[in-house]
Amino acid sequence: MAGRELKQIFSAYTSGDDAAFRRAALTIIEEEEAKQHFALARDLRKRIADDDSEHAASDLVPLPAAPRDPDHDVPLADILWPQKTFADLVLAPRSSDPLMAIAVETKHRRLLAEHRVPPRRKLMFWGPPGCGKSSAAEALANELGWPLMSVRIDSVVSSFLGETSANLRRILEEARASQWVVVFDEFDALGRQRNDPTEHGEIKRVVSSFLQMLERFDGPSILIAATNHEKLLDDALWRRFDDVVEFRRPTVAQIRLLLRQRLATIPSHRPRIDESASRLRGMPHAAVEYAVWDAYRTQLVAGESRVTSTALSAAIDRTRQRPW
Q1: C-beta separation of 259 from 312 below 8 A
Q2: Alpha helix ranges (H) inside 16-150
Q3: Which of 111, 160, 244, 281 is the 20 to 30 A CA-CA neighbour of 262?
Q4: Which helix (H) or strand (E) holds 245?
Q5: HSE-up of 193 (CA within 13 Å, CB side)?
Q6: Which residues, 6 or more positions from 276, have their beta carbon under 8 angstroms from its beta carbon?
Q7: CA–CA separation, 99 vs 313, rounded Å?
Q8: Rounded to the nearest 10 degrees, what angle do helices 252-263 and 285-301 cross at?
């Protein structure tokens, strides 16, 4: 570890320069990775990202400020330190494998640069709602030890449509200046088909402008566009992304695993996992979590401390009655 980085990190901490502290910390982590000290580097990244640890990032490195629309003084994104991890995800290999590979590649981006191999930094997540797209983005940010920037589409798309491109440019400029995982959720609101006769010319110009921004983006951050309505996206958008990851509804086996994971964190008594998984067949990940928390909430309010099979069954009934 170079003395220069140590001086920078102490100087940044004492002066309260959060961005400089983070840059110096990440430089040290990258140097450890270059030395193949992967266990140490991984631990340091987790210490930066983990709010609940003794060395919480909120104590050492407060959340960076979100980019803002200066004309209306509103934040263009929500910023958080990620909490979910890859271990929390229950995904098919077609979804999880690319995420893990991208995390490894990102940690070795200096090696890729030495061989002139471009990194994957622009990702498209698509699939039905409630199937893990947002959780996967958060877990990727956690694995990298980077803050998560969740773009506020409603703030970006201004009532004065000419300002939308400027807002998008502000977000990408921030993504060039530091290391983030930037998530554009409900991306179809920005990337609609330009040949859609129901859309007016200004929206089409916004899409064209955003296509150019994506094409030129070369910052250190990872950009993730997530959509539940892939058929609404402009055809030219897909090739602007370095990888496309599909998220599907879980199989019964995955629902069973998800139930076991969630019930392992709360008191329960013989909850009949197999039967419950079969009854939740065809529902998204979010529905499974909803059923577990609904059962536990109901039990606690009733003065009970454990989720029983009866309580879980009733919660599944309620889960199946609502739209997903």
Answers
A1: no
A2: 18-34, 38-49, 57-60, 93-107, 109-114, 133-144
A3: 244
A4: strand 243-246
A5: 9
A6: 259, 291, 309, 312, 313, 316
A7: 34
A8: 40
Q: How far apart are the first and last CA of the chain?
A: 51
pLDDT of 60 over the 60 cut? no
Q: Which of 24, 84, 16, 75 has the alpha carbon at shortest distance from 49?
A: 84
CA 100 to CA 106: how far, in whole Å? 10
- Cα–Cα distance for residue pair 69/76, rounded to 1 Å: 6
CA atoms within 13 A on the CB side of 212: 8
What is the chain's alpha carbon radius of gyration, rounded to the nearest angstrom?
22
**pLDDT number for residue 190:** 78
From CA 124, how far away is CA 183, in angstroms rounded? 10
Q: What does pLDDT average to over the chain?
A: 86
Q: Name the E strands within 247-309.
A: 268-269, 307-308
Q: What pTM does this model have?
A: 0.78
Chain centre to alpha carbon of residue 322? 26
Beta bridge partners of 222: 181
State the pLDDT at residue 138.
97
